[in-house]
Records
---
Amino acid sequence: MVLLSRIAAWSGSALVAILFLGQLVAYQAGYRLGRTQTRRDEAPGEGVGVLLGGLLALLSFVLALTLSFANDQFYERRKGTLAEANSISTAWLRAKAVRRPQGEAIMEMLEEYTRLRREFVAAPDQSPSLKAIATRTNALQSAMWTDVSELMRAEPSPASTALMAALNAVFDSTTNERFAYDLRLSTRILWLLLALTLLGAGGLGYQLGLRGPNAPLLAGLLFLAWSLVIVDTLDLGSGRLGGIRTSVAPYDWSLEGFQPMGRQNVSPTVGGPGR
């Protein structure tokens, strides 16, 4: 499965082609086996269609199950990105309300923290920068917690208490997001899906071989559809492969909100105060 992941990271089209060719080979092997069986027996077994129907039904079930798992994982990553960006913005605003040196230091560190989290989400699979991002993220968390702890000892006010709670929410959101990106589709389920796909292609060819006429064009269209769905499922379930990626827009919006109001180009709304 590592090999498939590397191929998918290099080119999704190449993975589609490999899966398509594998099914086509299995189909042709099954068809020739069916033709050979027909020459030996006068009447082909009627139970082949029933068995093939059960195999294809099982393939459809596993494919739908895998797609559901992949969609859930994509949703968790997307939800985690938005939650983390919102928690960082909340902590930044509460640090600004403190109006002490520790608050200003935390504001600056949160801005760098946001850029790091953006890089984490946008990093490709097996990127060497992921380890450095994790190390710097942990260092910033320790530094911010040290500052807020000093602030609580020096001035235990409602504002500092709220800031501590907000930073704790930021750290929890980061842990959730890292876990969502480390969670992958089950290797066993993916191997089962690939095996059932090849068996289904071979079984389809065998049944057509028993009945006589070959339908390579229609079979090829079916195999192409199966290949595209499998690759899209792998793409959807992997946070750093392919083109289905989690958007980094929430982090960009947070960084824009950190800029002083004087630097922002805000157009007045119709009927608003700028009218």
---
Amino acid sequence: MLGSLKYGVWTVLVLGQYILSPGSQPDGQDWMLVASHLGLLAEGWVFRRQLPRLPSMYGTAMIWFLANDYADWFLGVHPRLPLPGEFSFAMWSSLALTLIIYFWGRSLLRSSTR
């Protein structure tokens, strides 16, 4: 669920920046990726209340996101970016989404223990 939210938002942000940039020529694949990741985001949102709020599961997810961010942005295995100068935006938005999910997840854990 957390991954669906993070990667749904991230892909729409990155492709949205490309689609809205002057001179871009988005094709069917770009629009399909936006539509499918909006669906991924919606799926994560729908299932957000179904996720068991176990600290161990949440901790494992955060370790995964941090390892994935490290591999993507510091080892260079990130997905193809449609704009040549988009690396910085893509990296910082991914790291920011990891932080947002971290703090949001912490609040979910706190609210479930009350």
---
Amino acid sequence: MRIPVGDEGVNVAGVVNAPENYLLPCYIGLGYPSEDRPKIQQVEYSTKQKMHFGQW
């Protein structure tokens, strides 16, 4: 499931021929990722790095 960002929702609505007054709050993408897609590296955090006691 994907939540559209920016003009992505409008673009997807056009691709699926949704009526002009429809809003697509989310959609499910089907298919395979492109071979030349950018590789995203996952950032690892420990629990201690993410827990905040008495501070933000």
---
Amino acid sequence: MENLFESIETNQYEPLAVRMRPTELDHFYGQEKAVGKGTFLRAMIDRDTIPSMLFYGPCGTGKTTLAGIIAKISHSHFVNLNATNAGIAELRKVIEDARKRVRSLQQRTILFLDEIHRFNKGQQDVLLPSVEEGTIILIGATTENPFFEVNRPLLSRLRLITLALLTPEAIGNMVKRALTDREKGLGTRELTISDEVLRDLGVFVNGDGRMALNILEQAAAMVHDKGDITLEIMEKVVGRRIYTYDKKGDSHYDTISAFIKSMRGSDVQATLHYLARMIEAGEDPNFIARRIVICAAEDVGLADPQALILANAAAQAAHLVGFPEARIILSEAACYVALAPKSNSAYLGIDAAISDVRHKDYGNVPDHLRDSHYSGASKLGHGVTYQYAHNYPNGYVDQQYLPDALLGAVYYEGVERGKEKELLEDWKKRRNIK
């Protein structure tokens, strides 16, 4: 069985992302939580006592690369398979060879199985006995949620290692290494790239190191030796604008702030513009949907209660279908909120009431409003004089509801716009207030 991780001469026709795969942990950027100093996995690698594991993370985060580093460091025999083209027959052969190798050479076998979620239940079950008894050390890799795609019995025997999306800083380190490496990278060409372009590229690829190196390689092909790789060249390669939109930086907060303020200000054109910015930058649809829901409650409020219902339905639908179709759902909700009449009366009302609760002596609940559904309540005067509103004309009776200490307090100030105007008029009629 060929070991695809064995050191071989660099093939000039291999993609840059393949040539630049790290072979040591010092060059494995961005996964300190998983394999940094002091972590469980780092200790196991240093001691060459690798347990059966499952690498779980998005594309381009280093699952295969980490397996290759382990292959180089470990004294175990290493076998690489991909579940997209491997079958049960190959698995059985690997397992049988592993048994022979233990008996004859006292050497363990590590099986790296990429795309393990592609195996069906029967194929995964073949691995169970050999993993259980330690015949093979299994390292699986998947981009899919393992709790849905990997059999529970097999998953319970694997140590789950989660690899996160690479930060722009980690992406920048990878690109710099590729530009300076004279043996496998682009170092002989002496190309330059600014820190600003590095950061923008790191943001654009959304944590995918492979994509970053692919873009770099194609951009480098458009530049003469000792030339500068600019943002304009990068954008020519990707065929679209590379947005400066760091999900943890100022651009992220500035854009979502402008989006919310445009909806609040009833500017539907600006609302769609900022929504488009976020979609193109790869923003999480759930994040956008939550802001629309908040705006529907805070800024539209009682002027159009339907806005909150629609926004909440849009949030659920966007979560269900994801991009690209979620853009339509988010657009509908955002446009509705922008076009709807506005009232922040409910928002101001609850904040005013909370302020009194926090800072004032608000007294006790009036006796006639207290719970009367237990034996002895009437002896305490609880609920005795309570007047049931439905027994009176218009479903309203004039009685005290606020505590004595807050009598006369006003929290809700109605706004006579949209549906709230109707609600106010009806409320005044029921109370017979002119």
